[in-house]
Amino acid sequence: KSCHKPVDKYIEYDPVIILINAILCKAQAYRHILFNTKINIHGKLCIFCLLCEAYLRWLQLQDSSQNTDPDDLIRYAKEWDFYRMFGIASLEQTSFLVGIFTALWWMRPEMLETKSDFILLLKALLLSSYGKLLLIPAVIWEHDYTPLCLAFIKVFVLISNSQAIRVTLNLNRMLPWLAIFLGLILENGVVCLFQKMGWAV
Fold this sequence. Notes:
One of its GO terms (biological process) is sterol metabolic process. By secondary structure, the protein is an all-alpha fold.
């Protein structure tokens, strides 16, 4: 009665239907997940997605497939490449998020006034990056179309991020994409810096 708005229809829906609608990037499903459920897997999901990305980069290292003498102790140090890739993926993800928050604060400072607004948007962005989990099946079932699959996964994650920003801050479609674009610019700047230093794949 007080808000004069319809009830969230997803309250009565089966979780599988909600998940399918979230995969289809429906705004109502995102609103239900972000505001009407108590999901506390944001941090764990972020770490797992970063591990998936680090694993993919680790496999793409040129020297990771070289076979050495079993007595060679250096081959055991190759696991450090995985941790290095995890660190690089973490810094790139952080720069992407910093770019988004900076762009949104610059365009509309009133949207991120309180700490709770900031935390809600951060949780929404981390939760909407669940598409990165598809990196593992794409690598396991490797075929000729793997680069195309990885590009589709990247686009899907960006669309999900856009919906999360739009739903969380109640924006039109243009501002979230502009914020994501600026986040990508900052992330690619970090990637170029790592490549110049010889740290990235």
